[in-house]
Recover the amino acids of this structure.
């Protein structure tokens, strides 16, 4: 007997939260394992972050892929091979729309529906409360499992400074959409990640003056080396299993032979070795530094009146400050304990995917790989779907797999040798991570 | 076996794109049935299906497509082309491979979750194919052992009473022995993704694919082959071309309803 009469029991169905790239691949792979799926999406279309129409989308007019096409596409649904190496975001959206149409995923998606809360009911099952984004009453349904794919690039991380006394305009990079916002203005871009560098380059083409503030020196990798996309060359070295020191040496060599010494452009010397931070791939930043269009500056220490104070005591007076300070993951519909979320808001999950205390709760795509995210999200969702299938079909073996997985060493799937920066907590090497997933997939294969 | 998860070859040296020859006949109206993609074997092109099977498949309510193997191809490039065309179709496709094209399809199934798959007169991998070819056509096959392009004879491919056989034979393209070797000795394909239903059809009188090989291929998918006695290897060009395609589409209709 149900505890409340208005809870609709969906029996063995799985609930997926979000219909972006990760949610779509979760639906497809769960359905391949024979599960009925209800996916809730607050927007009225698929594509998540890659759909520029969505109010939570971080893309701007000129966003292109950072990782090249073969390292970004779903492994079982390739992008057209006549597309460029680094497609535009509008192509990514059409790719995701075609993926959804090709596999008929629309039948499983409830658009314009927000998840309000997800609560465990004790026997591994979940009550999911949803509401139409237009308002109205909540509706509660019971599911056998919940797969969270709500994205992690939509809740901006604020600049850790007081901006109340500052009279200029401060926007987060997520609010930057069009180069017209930069035209003819004095712009300060804060942040040395891929977005910060992309916007600094765009500002160099549009704005009257550009300052680019970074906390530390980074290794700016070109998009192409030796006539190939740089990530493909890097993977060649990984395929040949070259040791890290040799790859670092070759990385140094290649940079030496092309751009040379970064500090000559006024950039700080990197405080870490190559491959010890998330890769920043930008061929044009150094180009515009060399043309004097971008002035590199250190960390921002204060904003007051019309001036911005920098760590070296310099003061600049920009019209517009764009903070490319990244995003924080957010799961407002979940009790933080369910994902073992710490005080900084970071979940602690097995393989960054499986909730440690709840075998029927998983998160897809909460990773920062040194390659495209979709291949990893695909194999994550295959693993989640096979895990849920094994739990149903062979509980004894499922328990054995769980036992074995609990002792999998952390260093086999996370990267430990990284500069301590808050954005690196979920950084993974795509090869190391996929090896760990492949090993899990083998254990989950039906007997 | 090579990892299906870490695909270094695809990541570091993608197959170069080419202009692909794709033929199609679409039903009117298009309807809800999945599209069917025919994959010809070596030497053949998309034309082999355009002769009868494409139009017949469309008349039964399935969008019918076929793709020619690229010039100067390799097994990897053929598989790539099949997956590219399949992924470009509006819905999850059914893959139907004939002859060596069936081998290409069985490799493609590990790369693309097909709605269903049919292996028609599937050439077996390895030495079995060579043995059968030597028995049926020693003079055409022997040169292949020393690296020349093998020749397929009329009686290997077509029934004796087939009217247009000479015209068809004139359309065949000679494929280098290198490509044959690569396709036949590639090693077993990885397991299909997405668990598609697979049907094997063939003829006990096929002079390219021995009966035993048909049984073995069908057995590896847990079934028995559907047999059409009296037909030659090129089922889709034979006088009785209608029987196998009708049986395939009947099977498909039943599988889709399941």
């Amino acid at each position: 007997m149900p505890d409340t009469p208005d809870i609709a029991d969906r029996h063995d169905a799985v609930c997926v939260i979000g219909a972006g790239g990760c949610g779509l691949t979760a639906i497809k792979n769960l359905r391949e394992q024979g599960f009925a799926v209800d996916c809730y999406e607050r927007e009225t279309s698929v594509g998540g972050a890659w759909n520029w129409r969505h109010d939570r989308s971080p893309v701007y007019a000129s966003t292109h892929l950072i990782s090249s096409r073969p390292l970004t596409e779903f492994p079982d649904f390739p992008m057209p091979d006549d597309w460029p190496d680094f497609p535009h975001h509008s192509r990514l959206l059409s790719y995701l729309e075609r993926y959804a149409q090709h596999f008929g995923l629309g039948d499983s998606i409830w658009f314009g529906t927000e998840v309000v809360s997800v609560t465990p009911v004790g026997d591994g099952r979940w009550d999911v409360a949803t509401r139409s984004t237009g308002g109205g009453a909540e509706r509660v349904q019971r599911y056998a499992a919940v797969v969270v794919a709500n994205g992690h690039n939509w809740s901006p991380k604020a600049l850790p400074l007081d901006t109340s006394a500052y009279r200029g305009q401060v926007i987060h990079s997520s609010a930057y959409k069009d180069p017209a916002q930069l035209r003819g203005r004095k712009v300060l871009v804060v942040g040395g990640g891929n977005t910060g560098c992309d916007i600094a380059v765009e500002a160099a083409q549009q704005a009257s003056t550009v300052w680019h503030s970074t906390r530390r020196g980074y290794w700016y990798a070109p998009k192409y080396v030796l006539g190939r996309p740089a990530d493909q060359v890097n993977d060649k070295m990984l395929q040949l299993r070259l040791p890290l020191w040799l790859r670092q040496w070759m990385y140094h060599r290649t940079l030496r032979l092309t751009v040379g010494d970064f500090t000559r452009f006024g950039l700080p010397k990197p405080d870490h070795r190559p491959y010890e931070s998330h890769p920043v791939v930008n061929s044009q930043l150094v180009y515009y530094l060399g043309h004097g269009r971008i002035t590199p500056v250190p960390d921002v220490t204060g904003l007051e009146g019309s001036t911005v104070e920098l760590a070296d005591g310099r003061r600049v007076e920009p019209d517009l400050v764009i903070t490319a300070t990244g995003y924080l993951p957010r799961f407002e519909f979940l009790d933080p304990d369910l994902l073992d979320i710490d005080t900084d808001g970071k979940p602690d999950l097995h393989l960054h995917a499986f909730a440690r205390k709840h075998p029927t709760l998983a998160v897809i795509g909460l990773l920062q790989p040194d390659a495209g995210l979709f291949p990893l999200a695909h194999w994550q969702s295959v693993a989640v779907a096979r895990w849920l299938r094994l739990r149903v079909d062979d509980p004894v073996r499922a328990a054995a797999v769980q036992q074995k997985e609990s002792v999998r060493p952390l260093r086999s799937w996370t990267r430990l040798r990284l500069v301590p920066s808050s954005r690196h907590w979920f950084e993974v090497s795509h090869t190391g991570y996929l090896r760990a997933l492949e090993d899990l997939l083998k254990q989950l294969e039906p007997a | 076996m090579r990892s299906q998860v870490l695909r270094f070859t695809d990541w570091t040296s993608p197959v170069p794109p080419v202009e692909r020859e794709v033929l199609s006949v679409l039903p009117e109206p298009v309807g809800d049935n999945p599209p069917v993609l025919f994959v010809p074997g070596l030497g053949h092109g998309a034309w082999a299906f355009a002769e009868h099977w494409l139009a017949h498949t469309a008349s039964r309510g399935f969008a019918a497509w076929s793709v020619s193997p690229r010039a100067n191809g390799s097994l990897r490039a053929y598989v790539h082309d099949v997956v590219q065309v399949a992924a470009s179709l509006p819905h999850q496709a059914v893959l139907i491979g004939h002859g060596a094209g069936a081998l290409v399809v069985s490799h493609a199934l590990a790369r693309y979750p097909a709605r269903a798959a049919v292996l028609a007169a599937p050439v077996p991998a390895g030495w079995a194919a060579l043995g059968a070819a030597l028995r049926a056509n020693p003079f055409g096959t022997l040169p292949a052992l020393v690296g020349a392009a093998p020749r397929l004879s009329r009686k290997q491919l077509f029934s004796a009473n087939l009217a247009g056989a000479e015209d068809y034979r004139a359309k065949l393209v000679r494929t280098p022995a290198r490509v044959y070797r690569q396709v036949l000795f590639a090693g077993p394909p990885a397991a299909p993704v997405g668990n598609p239903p697979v049907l094997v059809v063939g003829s006990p009188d096929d002079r390219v694919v021995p009966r035993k090989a048909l049984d073995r291929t069908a057995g590896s998918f847990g079934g028995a082959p559907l047999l059409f006695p009296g037909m030659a290897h090129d089922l889709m060009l034979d006088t009785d071309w209608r029987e196998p395609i009708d049986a395939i589409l009947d099977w498909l209709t039943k599988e889709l309803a399941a």
Remarks:
- Chain B has a mean pLDDT of 90.
